[in-house]
Batch of 2 targets.
Target 1
Amino acid sequence: MKYPAFKFAATITSLLLVAGLVGQLLFNSKPPPEEVAEAVLGNARNLKIVYQQWITQAKQNGADRNLVLALSYIKVSRLSPPKLMDRCGSISPTEPCLPR
Amino acid sequence: MRLDLTDGTLSAEVNGLPNQDAFDLWLVDNGESSVKPEPGDAMIRIDRFQHEGASAKLRTSLGPEVLKNFKLDLVVVARAGKGPGEAGILFGSPSFFQRLYYSEQGGQLIGLADFDESSGPGTENQSPLWAPFSVLIPSPAYAADTADAALARAVANGERVFSKEQFNGNGRTCATCHRSERNLTIDPKFIATLHRHDPLFVGEFFEDGDGNDTNNIRCTDPVKSLGCKFEHPKLMRKFGLILENVDGMDNLEKKFVMRSVPHALALNTSLQPATSGLPEMIGWSADGSPTNTLRGFAIGAVKQHFTKTLDRNPGTDFRLPTEAELDAMEAFQLSLGRQRDLDLKTLMLNNKRAIKGQSIFINGNGKPAPFDGTCMAYHNNAGATTSFGSLANSNFNTGVEDRRDSRTVRAIIDAGIPRDGGFGNSVTDPTGCIAPSSHCGFGDGTFNTPPLVEAADTAPFNHNNTFDTLEEASSTILPISLTISVPVASLIWVTLRLLRLPHSFASSMCWRTTA
C-alpha cells in the first residue's frame, strides 16, 4: 500500500458519509406539514380581533339559530353576474360615475 | 341559503336563473378530497327550485338521516338531471369563522364565542342540543382545545401553505408573486433581481434543440414551455404584470388580461359586499375569486398559476386545495395587516405639508360636488371603501384602461392585449367593436376601490400598474384644479411615521378623471 494513511482516512470519511446519509434518512426530523408552530408574517392576535368582531355581528344576525351561506355564481358560467351599483345607481361602462 | 339549525328547515332563493331551465340544490361532503365535487364525495340532492317571477325558490326540511356522518362542505346549485360536479353553477361553503364558531357552539372548542361582551362569559350560551343541525358544519381541521389555539394554528399553517405549498404544480407558490419582502406584491425592479429559474418565470422555461435550458423571453416557438398563453414575459418583466384568464379559459389566445399583483394586506377592511352582489369583494375587479369569497380565491389561483400544462387538469397538472388548506389560507390572509380603517379626520399630523394634504384629501378644493376633488369620498379614511353608506364597497370605472398617456397602457395596447373589462363577463363595447379585440373586453368596465394606506410601499399602482409613483398617480388622476401631489404625498409619509406602521401608508389616488 503506497498511501495507507490516505486510504485509511478515505475509508473513514466514506463510512462517516454513509452513516450520515443513513442517519438523515432514518432520523430526518423535518416536521410534518401540520406541525408548524408559529407564523412569522401572519398574526393570530389580528385574526382573533377579526373573529371577535365577526362573532358579535353573527350573533346579531341570528347565527346561533341559522346558518346562512351566500350562493355565488362562477364568473365563467355565462350567467349574468349580480349587478354592482355605483353612486349613480347604474353601471356605466364608459364613464366614471361622479356623485350627484 | 338559510338552514335553521334547530329544526333543519332549509330555504334558498336565487335570482337570475333562466326560467326555462330546472335547477337542483345539492349538499356535498368533500371528505378528505379536494374542494371540488368529485366521485367519492358524499352528495345529497335536496330538492328542485321553483321559479317564481325573477326568482327561483326552494324550501324543505332536512331529515335526521342527513345528520349521520355528513359534513356540509359545499352547497351547490346545479342544472337538473346532472350532478354538482359537472353541472354546478352556484356554490356556497361555510367560511373559516363559521366552522370555528359552530365548533365552539357544539362544545368542541372552548373559545371566544362563549364570551358575551355585554354580560360576561357563559350567560347566553346555547346548548349543543339546542341546535342539532349545527353538527353538519365541519370543524376547522386543526386539533386544538381552544379557539385561540385553533386560530394560531390556522394562521401558522396558512402561512406555510401560502409560502411553500406547490399543489403538485409547476413549482410556484402563492409567495412566488405575493413576496413577503415586497409587502406581498411584486414589481419590475424586484423581478429583475430574480434568478432566471425562479418559478415566476415558469412560463418561459425552455429547452433549445441542444438540450440547453434557457428562458424564452421572446416567447417564440415555445418548446416544453407553458408559453405566452400562460404568461407574457415582456410585460411581466417590464411592468410586473401577470396574465389572468379571469373571464374563462375557453379562448386562451384572446380571452385574457394583464394585471398587477395586489398586496394581501388589510383584506378584512375591503371584503364586505356592496348592497347587492357578491358575498365578498376580492381581486382588482371584485370578482377575482371563483367562489367570490376569500376562502375560494386559492382555488382559482392554483388553476390559473400553478398548472404544469395549459390543459389545466386537476389531478395531473396540479391538485386543488383541500378544505383544511382553504381554512388555513383564509385565516392567514385575514390576519395580515390592518384590521380596521383609520379615522383620518381626527388623525393628528405634525407636518405642515402633510396637514395641507390631509385637508385636501378630506375636503377637496372647495368646489361643489362633483368637482370638489375629495379623495375621501372614494377612499373613505384612505381605505378601500367609499363614503357612500350602503354602497361603500363599490366598483367604478376608473378610466385607467383609456390612459394612453401611460407607458404601461400603451405597451399593453401595442402588444395586442385585449382590453380589461373588469367586473363580470359581459361584452364591453365602448367603441362599437366586437370583443375580444385590442379595444374591447369582457366586463362592465369597473374595478373595485383599492386601499390607499398600504400604497406607499406597494407601487406601482392600479390593476395594470398604470402608474409607477404616487406623484404620477396623483398628478394624472386628480382633477386639473387639484394637482397638488406633494402635500398629499407628505400626508402619506407623515402618517406612516405617526402610526409606526412597519411599511406603508397611503397614496393620493383619487379616481376622478374630469374636473
Note: The radius of gyration of chain A is 32 Å.
Target 2
Amino acid sequence: MLFSENFKIAIRALRANKLRSMLTMLGIVIGVATVVALLSIGKGATASITSQIQSTGSNLLTISPGRLQVGGGGQSQQMSHLYYSDYQLVQRSLSQNINAIAPSYQSSYLVKYGNESFNVSVQGVTADYQKTNSSNIALGRFITEGDNKSQALVAVLGSQTAEDLFGGLSPVGKMISVNGVRFEVVGVLESKGSGFGSSDDAIQIPLETGYGKLFGETATYNNKKIVNSISVSVSTTKAMDTVSAQIKFLLRRSHKLASSDESDFNVMNQADLLSTLSSVTQTLTAFLGAIAGISLLVGGIGIMNIMLVSVTERTKEIGLRKAVGATRNQILTQFLIETVTLSLLGGIVGILLGVGIATLVSATGLISSVITADSIALAFFFALLIGVFFGIYPAYRAANLHPMVALRYE
Amino acid sequence: MIQAENLTKVFQMGDSEVRALNGVSFNIRKGEMVAIMGPSGSGKSTLMSIIGCLDVPTGGRYILDGIAVENMDEGNLAEIRGRKIGFVFQQFNLLARTSALENVMLPLTYAGISGKDREDRAMNALERVGLGDRTHHAPNELSGGQQQRVAIARALVNEPAILLADEPTGALDSKTGVEIMQLFQNLHKGGGQTVIVVTHDSYVARHTDRIIKISDGHIVLDEVNHHPIQAGTPRPDEVL
C-alpha cells in the first residue's frame, strides 16, 4: 500500500473530527513554538553579548572588586572595594604595553531637561574611557583631562539618553540637571547597540567632578575615593598575561594581602568574560529548552490519548479493513501515519508560530533573536519523534484487534 | 470449494470452556448457494468467522479453494480474506465520508492494486450491482439498499471464491431485502458465484438451494431446497 494512500486516509480521519484534531495539535504547536522561540532568543542573546564584548576592544583587562571574607571561616562575606589610589598606582607603575587605563565610578541619578526626567546611570570617567570602551563621538567632544582637573560641570550623553531627553534636537550646549546639579552637555556618543552592558542609556561626566560635586559620601570608604572598575587596554594580545600578572602583584601588595589570602579583586580579560557569560546563557537556553521539551511531552501525551480514543471509536472500521484483507502491518502503518501527520502538522504550525514570536521579540528591540536552520530542524525532528513515539502504542492496539471481535464491536 | 472436517472451536471463558463448534463437517461445491441457519448462540457466527478466515478452528480441517487454512497465521489469513472471501454485513460497514467508488476500491488497495486498473475494476463491480451512476456518492447520500449494494460490489471486486453474507437483509425493510436477495440469486445463477448466506430468518434461507441448520455446535439438518423462492415473487404469508 502506498504512502500517499495512507496519508489520504489519515487526512480524511483527521478532518472527520476537525475541532478535536486541532485541539490535539495545539499541544504540539505550543511545544514546538516554545522550542523554536526560546532557542532563537537564547542564540540571539549569546550572539549579542559576544559582539558587545568584542566591540569593547579585544585586549581589554577589567579590574573589579571581589568578595572579601570577613571574620574567617567564611561566616560572612562583603564586597571589597577598589580605590582611586589603586588606579593611580597601576597607572604610575605600569607604562609598558599599555594603551590606556580608565577608572570609573557609576551611580544612578534623576536627570532632567525641561519637562523630561529619567533615572539614568551616571558614570564618572576619565579621558581614557573613550579608548578602553571603544566609544565614538557622534556630536561634540568627549571628556578631557582638563575637564577632570578643573572639575568642569560637563556631560557626554549616550545615544539613547540623548534621544530620551532631547528627542531629535541637538543636545550639545544645553544644560541638564543631574540630581539638582547643572551640567552642560558637550557631546553625544554613537550607539553601540542594545544589549548587555550597553552605555547607550548612560551619561558620562568627569570622574573628579563626580567626586567633588555629585557622588558625595557614597563614593568614599574610610576617606578613600572608590571606583567600580578599572579598564586597562593592553597594546598587544601577547602582553595580556604579563600585564594581568603585574596588576595582580601590585594590587595584592597595596591591599596588604598575605600570600595565603585570596585576592579581594578580579582581573578579567575578554576571553574570561566571554566564557563566563556564554556559559550563563547556555545554561539558561538549556533550562528554557527543557521547559519547552516538557510542554512537547505533554502535547505528545495528548496525541496518544486522542489516538487511543480514536482506535476505540473506529474498532468496526478496523474490523472491516481486516476483513477485506488489511494485514496487521497495514493497520499499524495507517494509524502511525495518522499520528505522525497530526504531530508534523502541529510541528509546522508551531515552527511558523515560533519564528513569528522570535521575530516579534526582535522587533521590540528588547532582546535580539537569531533563527537558525538547526533549531528549526531540531523542533521538526522532535515533533516527528513525538508522533512516532506516542503513536506506536495506539497503532499497536489497533493492529492487534481480532477481526471478528472488532466487527462485532458495538 | 469448501471442505470442512470435524471442525471444533473452544472459547475459554474464565475457568469454563465453551464449545461453540463441536465436530462440524460439510462440503460446499463451487457455484452453490447455501444458507447457514441457526438461532443466536448456536455456533452459527463462529462457523461463519471460520469459513470467512476471520478466525481459525481449535480442531479439525478446513480447506478453502484447495488451501488448508486451519493452521495459518494472521498475516496469511489476511491475504486469503483479501483474495478469496467477499464479506457482506448486516450493517453494511461502509467507510463514512468516503465515496462508493473508494469504498469498493478498498480490498484492491490492500491487495496492492493501484491506479487505473483499480478504478476500472471498482467501476465494473458497481455496475454489476446496478450502481454505475452513484459512484461518487458518500454512504450518507445513499439509501440502505444502495449502501448494501455498494457493500456487495466491494465484496465482488476481488472476484472472490465465496461471497459470504451475514444477515444481509437484517437492516433493510422487506421490499429492499427482497431486492438484495434477488441480486444474490442473479450473481449465483448468472455468474456462477458461490454464495453463503448466514441468517436466522427461514424465509431468507429458503431463497437458497441448500440449507444447513446448526444448533448447539452441531449440524442438525443439511438438505437440498428443491424449490427455492424466487426473489420478487410474493411472500407465502402475504398470499394467504
Note: The longest strand of chain A covers residues 98-113.
